[in-house]
Amino acid sequence: MNRQSPTRARRPGARTLVVLLLLVASQLVLWPTLEWLQRPIADRPLSISPAGSLETDARIHVQQRYRLSLDLPNKDAQGRAMNREALGGRQYPRVDGASIPIEWALADSRSGQVIAGGTVDTRNASQWGGGVATRHIAFVDVPPGRYRLSVRVLRNVIELQGITGRVRLGLPGGKISAGWTSTLLFWGPIASVLLVWPAIGVLIIVFLWKRSGHRRRE
Known about the structure:
Elements: H1 6-10, H2 14-38, E1 42-47, E2 53-60, E3 66-73, H3 84-88, E4 100-108, E5 114-122, E6 127-129, E7 132-140, E8 145-153, E9 164-170, H4 180-217
Antiparallel strand pairs: 1-9, 2-8, 3-7, 3-9, 4-5, 4-8, 6-7
Domain DUF5625: 44-169
Pfam family, one: DUF5625
InterPro entries: DUF5625
């Protein structure tokens, strides 16, 4: 004759509860991780005209393909609308935006050795959104560590007089892949909403059903 162990008899739905707790724990870890991954490594203002410069610390935790970009607002400091073509150009018919020559460098914060850098003549926006034209500067792929990022506009850009942009270093986003982090950022929320949370709901129902059935038998 098969007999259930006393422990199993006292704890109906124990396995269901363990799986349920593991799934809930995965969500408590997933969403803060996604928010942390999307947080820019560097995000600092940079005057375009008059030509400005900046230096800031950049802590890289995971070696991935990051993008260095420049966000240009569609209004100047006094709230006056800027010429859209000067900000980011136009594709049809082709018109280039105002040239912004930029010199940048990423140096090891301890040794001062430049790990990556260069000079770029940015002209056109790689994307638009939220009243901002984003210009691509460079892709950066360096080992984890502490770095010093420096960016300098090489001349006054008269067409964008009074504009202060923002230099950002972070994951590229959109359709540009940055390795496993891009996969996690894209599929993580989808899997969570379509698979994990429905599974959590089903497991809660199963657990409560098992507990109520045990009480009725008692």
